[in-house]
Amino acid sequence: MREVDVIVVGASLAAAAAAKRTVDAGLETVVLERKELPRHKICSGILSPRGHRFLLENFGPLPREVLHEPTSCRGVTFHFPCRVEMPMDFFHGTTPHLHRKYSDHWAIQRSGAEVHDQTSFAGLEDKGDHVLVHARRGGEPVEYRARQVIGADGPSSLVVRAIYPDYPKQIPWFFVGQKFHEIIDCPLSPDYFHFWFHPGLGHYTWSHARDGRQIVGVGFKRGDNFARKHQVVEQYLKDKHGVQLKPADDDHEGCAENFGPSLINRYVFGQGNVLVTGQAAGFLNMIGEGMSCALHSGAISGESIVEAARRNRPVQEIYRKMIASEVRRCSDQWNPLKIAFDRPHEADFPEALLKLSWRERKLVLRDMWNFIVLFKEFKWGRQIAAAALQRPMFGGYPLRKWL
Ligand SMILES: Cc1cc2nc3c(=O)[nH]c(=O)nc-3n(C[C@H](O)[C@H](O)[C@H](O)COP(=O)(O)OP(=O)(O)OC[C@H]3O[C@@H](n4cnc5c(N)ncnc54)[C@H](O)[C@@H]3O)c2cc1C
């Protein structure tokens, strides 16, 4: 059995950031990744300015191989059924368009951690002063003993299931899928990520250029039909935007997503010696931007382990104090009071709205409202309103809602 200080599960961005902190502090750190590296990751790869700064500051300049074509993104364009378009540039200029297969591999290598790929986390036992980690490699069981474990294994986290078996039943699950098309003619600007606030298209509808093809993506409640949903969006883009695409190539893809916890402050941070971070913990920013909060929350999980050892305090106590800043950043993005009176995002939505005529503003707000109504069945409204009111009263979001 291998004995180490820290086991990190998953070799993605949250893991790279967490491992960077523990390795820098001199802790022996092993990262377990179920796939062979470099591994594919479904993602648009649009990095926020804050995520970009994190990568530069922690891992150095990004090599060209970790980028898609176009190599950068100017910002986001919102589209509405009323046909108003709102292009919004990121603050401080363009950001890199990450090719996740290579960017994540680059980041995990730069973290300095030892990486065991093709090694799947399967379960754990927290013994109080150490954690036994059960994994599988090539069908064979592999055991590790660590002082702490960080679960950075993404939305369908097995680490979360190992400590809270019922958790997946407590949240709604979505499916997001994308298809890739050769382009005949595409009037949508390749410099922007395009997003539709359109209840008739789905819960999450997007399109952007990548490596000479156009991505058409759609997200919806689990159980619906991807091919049909995609067809509706493709037809809509043709009819309303003049986008002419060849039939989708064969390499379409999709995955389950745990969208929701950051809206209602229902994060999962683990228990005992097991910390959960990144999207596994529920971090997801507005319009599904998850890389910056994965990086920052990952780093905080690693720092918490270092701080807990230094101060001789329980690691959960430290983690929950330190992670509150990232919770504020992430949940602020969904907080209607923050959206109305502050600037929680990294592109200026209020300014873009003010550029519109009064009539257009009215139509946009009406369309946004109709889009929000699509999520009514999840009964998040009251919880979002309560959290929004608690935010100014307590200077943050209540800790008691976290698992
Ligand atoms: C279609 C789509 C488009 C997106 N577009 C963007 C975007 O443009 N910009 C943005 O910022 N975010 C985007 N996101 C969100 C972003 O991809 C995630 O929020 C982010 O990758 C989360 O990072 P993470 O490190 O927490 O986990 P993940 O990136 O999910 O990584 C988890 C890792 O754990 C590994 N793993 C899982 N289970 C095990 C196991 N049992 N044992 C060992 N390893 C395991 C996985 O293989 C993976 O490597 C998008 C997501 C999707 C689905």
Structure in words:
It is built from 13 helices and 18 strands. The mean pLDDT is 95. The strands form three sheets. Strands 1, 2, 7, 8, 9, 10, 17 and 18 form an eight-stranded mixed beta sheet that branches. Strands 4, 5, 11, 12, 13, 14, 15 and 16 form an eight-stranded mixed beta sheet that branches. The protein has a two-stranded antiparallel sheet with strand order 3-6. It has 403 residues and is of the alpha/beta class. α1 packs parallel to α7, α2 (49-59) crosses α7 and α7 (291-311) packs across α8 (315-322). The chain binds flavin-adenine dinucleotide. Residues 9-15, 32-35, 39, 41-46, 120-121, 152-154, 158, 176, 178, 217, 255, 257, 278-280, 284, 288-291, 294 line the site of flavin-adenine dinucleotide.
Short account of what is shown:
With 403 residues, this protein is α/β, with parallel strands linked by helices.
List keywords for this structure.
single chain; 403 residues; 8-stranded mixed sheet; 27% strand
**Unreliable stretches:** none
Largest sheet: 8 strands, mixed
- How much of the sequence lies in strands comes to 25-35%
Tally of helical segments? 13
The helix-and-strand class reads alpha/beta
Radius of gyration: 21 Å
Beta-strand segment tally: 18
Mean pLDDT, to the nearest integer, reads 95
Give the N-terminus to C-terminus distance in angstroms. Answer: 30 Å
Helix content: 25-40%
The dominant shape is globular
List the ligand species.
Answer: flavin-adenine dinucleotide
